[in-house]
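Deliverable D4.2, example record:
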Amino acid sequence: MIVLISPCELANTHGTGVQMLRVFGDSSRPFIHLHWASHSGLPSQSASSYWLREPSPWPWRTGRGLAGRLRDRFSLTWWPHGVVNVGRFEGLLRGLPTRPRVAYVVVCGEDDARRALSLLDVLGTPPVTHVVDLDRIELEPATMPAFGELLRRSPCVLALNESIAAQLARFRLASVEVVPFSFGYSGTAGPREDLIVLSGSLGPNPSNAYLHAAAEALRLVRARRPSARAVYFGAHSRSLPPDLRGEVEDLGLVSNASCGEVLGRARLAYLLTPDGNSSWDRHSIPSRIADYLACGLPILAMITQGNATHALLSDPALQPAVRFPTTAAELADATHDWIVNETAWTTASNAAVAYAGRHFSLDIVRSRIDAALARAEARADARAVRS
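Output generated by the structure prediction step:
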């Protein structure tokens, strides 16, 4: 059995939750999942997931829903958000038929590491630590003792991308392996509609200029191609500014099956984040990119440069499948071209599928994580023999 530890729930409301469900949800290995916060206020999509939050005077469910926004708005710092209920974990362990021998830990900074360590101290097994985001632009080992301790305890340290791996190198680790997110949908058979997809997080600020440029571009595209339409799906409908909301059909949070069905009908995707220079903008890569490419969707990326996402999409192997428009007119022209130019679209779609298969295959990602877990289990076994 594996213990999965991450800040937020296992759910398709955020990229990390989706990825953990893909890697472990269909695995033959049983697991329990522990988290101390919620990305959206919604529960996990796994019966084996437990929310280890301490009892709190805050009377409503936490997360980024209404309760979470009220807390942030009124600076309710007395609410012990994200404090780990270690006692409940001890009770869970006592109820298990066998004690877990390894942990898979997802963290993005010092606070996450401190909470994860409190659970690992109870578990007593070495973790595999996977860093998929960073909560600061530059990691500073001198000011991150818990993060450094977690890395030192880990026989294997994984990073989502080279940008994060470069930051982890500051901790003088023996090695860091890059393990990206995987795709969950694939396939290019079947008719394509003049459909443009936007999904997931669209940035925290509705004043994101790229969102407004997309709204203008969609108006220009429809003037030339009335059959063209755009849809948004995901947990962040609130991020749609009024002008963009009027140009897209908001599907809200959809099921995995519906998500795959929409991507299978679409012709291309818009990517409008990262849009700034925060730590998330600098180091994160939207997990939906893997799904877009695997489903044969060329990507029009109106994003800032100098970050991990731009570096990934600038790979020469993706040149046929990705364009970087900088104005609404350029975005509209590129959209129209990929809708009406079947030859150009087919070339782009084939390049996208090929790239996803080489880099984001679930089988490849799962095998790398399984190998890391096996090395951690071997260390645990060796420790048991010595003791």
